[in-house]
Structures are given as C-alpha cells and as structure tokens.
Amino acid sequence: MSETKRPITVVAAGILLDSEGRYLLGQRPVGKPYAGYWEVPGGKVEKGETVFQALQRELQEELGIDIQSSEELTVLEHDYPHAFVRLYVSIIRDWNGTPTGCEGQALSWEFIASETPSVEPLLPAAWPMLECLRRFLV
Hints:
With 138 residues, this protein is an alpha+beta fold. 18% of the residues lie in helices and 34% in strands.
C-alpha cells in the first residue's frame, strides 16, 4: 500500500461473474465524479460496515440484487483528483435477482476473454481490477 497524506476513502467493489464467462460494468450517473465512465459496481464502506456488508448494501441500491457470498480478489489504491481510494475488490458469483440500473445507469455484460471492454471510457481504477480478474481466472 502506498503512503498518502490525503484522507483515504474505503470502497467495496464487486465484480459480478455469470455462468457465461461475463462480468458486469455500470456507467457512472450524471452528477457523480467521472460521470459517463464505466466501472465495477460498488461504493463507499460506511462506518461500522464490513466490506461484504457494504457490497450487499451497494449492490442492492445500485443493481437491485441480493448477493449471497463474495471472494476477495485484491486490494488496490488509486489517487483520483477528487479522492484517494482504497478499493477492496471481490468476485461475486451468487446473487438473487436480475441486475438493473436502479440509479438510471446503463449496464453492460462483458466477456472476460475479451482484452478490452466493449464500452468506454473505463474508470482508471477499473483497469487494474480487470487485470487481476483475468490473472485469477487463468
């Protein structure tokens, strides 16, 4: 982990994997930093929450799904102009419901085998997540 003097924003990110070898990306809604960029779903971990509890809450709010379990993939840090984030990235294979853009965001299922997503631009911190995912699944 890198050292920083800026406050650290702790974020839980969940890479949904389906039975067809795809993962889900969502487009950031208008009004948020990097609006229009594509990202792995998730959000800030609130005080008193575990990473898994934050994932459960965020994916219910953003996608309308209930996740059953997750596997830790990696922890990454990224220094954005608006925030320094520490991302706890998990793989999610088991959920109830059909992912829907509950915040009006577009969604895109992407094949893991593809080197680059079919949508762009991708949020800068999403690239290392996807590289870790490919290494993990090889």
